[in-house]
Amino acid sequence: MTMTPRSSHSPNSRAGGRPGRRTGISEATVARLPVYLRVLTSLAESGVSTVSSEVLANAAGVGPAKLRKDLSHLGSYGTRGVGYDVEFLVYQISRALGLTQHYSVVIVGVGNLGQALAGYAGFGTRGFRVVGLLDADRARVGSLIAGIEVRHSDELETIISEHDVSIGVIATPAGAAQDVCDRLVGAGVTSVLNFAPVVLSVPDDVDVRKVDLSIELQILAFHEQRKSLVEQEAVG
Amino acid sequence: MTMTPRSSHSPNSRAGGRPGRRTGISEATVARLPVYLRVLTSLAESGVSTVSSEVLANAAGVGPAKLRKDLSHLGSYGTRGVGYDVEFLVYQISRALGLTQHYSVVIVGVGNLGQALAGYAGFGTRGFRVVGLLDADRARVGSLIAGIEVRHSDELETIISEHDVSIGVIATPAGAAQDVCDRLVGAGVTSVLNFAPVVLSVPDDVDVRKVDLSIELQILAFHEQRKSLVEQEAVG
DNA sequence: ATTTGTGAAGGGTTTCACAGCG
DNA sequence: CGCTGTGAAACCCTTCACAAAT
């Protein structure tokens, strides 16, 4: 039995390679661009055609200097004394994020969470298409969720190669996650979004991002505790 | 009509105040402690009583130096030449994160996602208790989810003050999220976990963390694009 | 001999403040 | 005059490498 070379690095960043080597856009900036994009899209729908860095920054929950520096990494797309053209920025950010291409996605695990993800509107829009819903439980196979037929996990490799899937979403129980991940990667998936509460090991050229409810809760707990300590001190 | 003072800052960090001012534990470290805790808990269950920084770091997907520095912020809990006592570390990390206290949680929005969250095991364990499931849709009110009765959103304030809720989870559609957030904060909630794809505005003393599927997908798309550019270059 | 704890060095990110341009 | 784009400073975080401890 051969061990595939593996590594798992900092949470939610590119598995191998140092940040922003080729594109010049840093990881921190990339993580904010989707937020700007969302705000800009909603501004465009409201008929706004121009925004200043200050207004856009406020709506995105960041400081104006940070916003301007972020946008400056894409090019000089603003007009001094005026601001940014909303539609043009939408296009430029979409392009920078790679959203002008299309990505096929499989979701593995069709429990409550998997169903919620399958029905999520964010998929249909902007270049992502769910081409497979997989589950290990044969009782669920064949049912329709968000218009997509659930298929058995055995078909994972087939579906991935048939649809040239590049992104896999893991919504299985923790125990199954690493196995599923290995199979996804083995079949050619190069990006994984993991909702299972485990640290996944993947080869260096695969990206993993994780979404972990209990980690988020624990971080909030930390700050809650901090608040009550401060309170206590203020009283005492 | 009065405007409540608001601010929304960097994604997923304390709303106001600079990091780690009082506790000496930095935000980056706090975000990793839950991962260490999970690994340690599972080691303890496997009967392991001692770990070195190298083994623990590997399991947590970080470098050993980073792990040691993180743990050193809690105190000197290791033994040179030996490693860390697993059970003792579990306790110390739990304490540092505030998990020795108990937190009451309400979940607002009982769609697919809200149901998935309500059923999530991570809640029951480690100090979090769901004391309310709320939905605006009267058709859902009264049904039982994960053993908890769904109640109408009108009761939000009542439930929060009755149970001294400090954490609110928003799993509503985007359009309702800010309103719900305002009501949560108005009723005394000081930490919010937001699953709706909007930037929430809150007063400085409230923490907001967000979980956003479409942002994660877009970040993965960026890296996918980068990979295909590199590939193309390697060929050409 | 082994492994922790940590100063110091090295990167990356944010913020400042202003020059540059419309 | 207003707002962008950006060097420079400040800050935070990670990594290195080794002294200290058992």
Characterization of the model:
Two copies of one chain form a homodimer. With about 240 residues, the first copy, chain A, is of the alpha/beta class. Helix content of chain A is about 45%, strand content about 15%. Chain A has two domains: about 25-95, Arc Repressor Mutant, subunit A, CATH 1.10.10.10; about 105-215, 3-Layer(aba) Sandwich (Rossmann fold). Chain A contains nine helices and ten strands. In chain A, the strands form two sheets. A seven-stranded mixed beta sheet of chain A has the order 6-7-5-4-8-9-10, with helices on both faces. In chain A, strands 1-3-2 form a three-stranded antiparallel beta sheet. The longest helix of chain A has 23 residues, at about 215-235. Chains A and B meet through helix 1, helix 5 and helix 9 of A and helix 1, helix 5 and helix 9 of B. Chain A binds a DNA duplex (22 and 22 nucleotides) through helix 1, helix 3 and strand 2.
Summarize the model shown.
Chain A is built from nine helices and ten strands. With about 240 residues, chain A is an alpha/beta fold. In chain A, α1 (about 25-45) packs across α2 (about 55-60) and α1 (about 25-45) runs antiparallel to α4 (about 85-95).
Give the strand order of the largest sheet of chain A, numbering strands 1, 2, ... along the chain: 6-7-5-4-8-9-10
| Assigned CATH superfamily of the largest domain in chain A | NAD(P)-binding Rossmann-like Domain
Compressed to H and E, one letter per element, the order of chain A equals: HEHHEEHEHHEEEHEHEEH
End-to-end Cα distance of chain A: 63 Å
- CATH architecture type of the largest domain in chain A: 3-Layer(aba) Sandwich
Based on CA inertia axes, which overall geometry of chain A fits?
globular
